[in-house]
Amino acid sequence: MARNNWARRAVVTFGSLALIGSLAACGGGGAGSGDAAGGDSKAPEDIQVGVAMPTETSERWIADGEAVKSQLEEAGYEVFMQFANDDIPTQQQQIDQMITKGADILVVASIDGTALSSQLQAAADQDIPIISYDRLINGTENVDFYVTFDNYKVGVQQATSLLTGLGLVDDKGEKTGKKGPLNIELFAGSIDDNNAHFFWKGAMDTLKPFMDDGTLVVKSKQTKIEQAATLRWSQEEAQSRMEDLITAHYAGGKTKIDGVLSPFDGISRGIQTALTNAGYGKSIKDGLPIITGQDAEIASVKLIQDGVQYSTIFKDTRKLASQAVTAVKSYAEGNEPEANDTESYDNGKKVVPSFLLDSDIVTADNISSLLVDSGYYTAAEVKAGQTK
Fold this sequence. Notes:
There is one protein chain. By secondary structure, this protein is of the alpha/beta class. 39% of the residues lie in helices and 12% in strands. The strands form three sheets. It has a six-stranded parallel beta sheet with strand order 2-1-3-4-5-11, with helices on both faces. Strands 7-6-8-9 form a four-stranded parallel beta sheet, sandwiched between helices. A two-stranded antiparallel ribbon has the order 10-12. Strand 3 (105-108), helix 4 (117-125) and strand 4 (130-133) form a beta-alpha-beta unit. Helix 2 packs parallel to helix 11 and helix 5 (151-165) packs parallel to helix 6 (194-212). The protein is elongated and about 65 Å long. It starts with 13 loop residues before the first helix and ends with a helix.
C-alpha cells in the first residue's frame, strides 16, 4: 500500500485526511498528516525512525548510536537502529528493510557516501525525509538535511595541535620562531568518506606554509590524500603503512620522524604501535613522535594522559545526537529543520542544508575540563582506558 505524502510537501484536503486515516489503520502512514502551515501531525509514539549506523568496531559509532537511539526514545519515537559492520551491501539491505518496515524518517551515517542512491530513491518515492548523520551522502538529490561538525575546522585543529606539539606554534596559534627541518608523515581517513576530504583540506591548508618554507618535511613525499588514505579508517592498515614508511624512508636511524598527522584515534594507535616496534620508544618523552587523533576514544584519551599520544579532537556525540533529534522533530511536525550552513556541503547534486557543531582539541592539560567535568567520561574510566 502506498505511503501518504509528508505534510511539508503537500496541502492536505478533507479527502486526503480520510485517506490518511485509512492508511494509518494499515500501518503505512507518514509522520505528518497536515501541512507546515498548521495541519495536524502524529504523536511521536506513532512515528518510526530508522537509524543506520556504519559500524560497531569503532567506539565512536557505538556512542553515536546509543546517543541517537536513547534521545529519540526519550522524545517518544519508535526507533529501529542497525549497525552495518562497515559492509556496504549490509547497510543497503538494512535501509531497504527500514523502508519496508514502515520507517517515517531515516537518519543515516553512511559507510560509502556514494553507495546508497537506490535506497534513498526508494525512500524519496515514499516521501521519507533523509537526515544525513555526520557523513555527507553524495551523488543524490534525495538528502534533505545534514547534521555534522565543522569538518574543515576539525582538520585545522588536528594540524594546529601537531604544530603545537612540535613547538612551532604556541597555545594561541602564534609562531614560536622554532626552526626546522622537522620530519612529518601524513595520514588521511577513508577516501570514500566525504568527511575525510574536509579533514584533509583543513589540515593541509594549515600545514602548507610550514611545508612550503621547509620547516616541515614529508620525506616520503606522500602529500596527496590518495596516497595517505586509510580505507575504512583501519587501525591495522595504518600500522602496516607506517611500517612501510619507516622501512622505506627512515631505516638505519639516520633520520627520524618528529610528528604524524593522524585523522582518527584508531589510526593513531596503529601508527603508535608501528613506531614503538621500530624503536621510537613508548612515550613522547622516550622519543615517540607527536601524533594527533580524533574522536576522543577512551583508549586514546588514556594514552594522551600517559604521554603516548599527543592530542585528539573531541566531537561531543551527545550534541550531534541532539541535533539529529531536533531535525527529526521538525520533520515530524511538518516543518523544515533550521540550518546554520547552506553553502558548504555540495554533494554533487545539491547543496545540502546543514547544521554544524563545534569541536575541541584535547591534550593532557584539558582532559579533565573537557571530558570529565562535562560528564562524557569519568576520571576512573580515563585512568583505566575503558568505559564501564
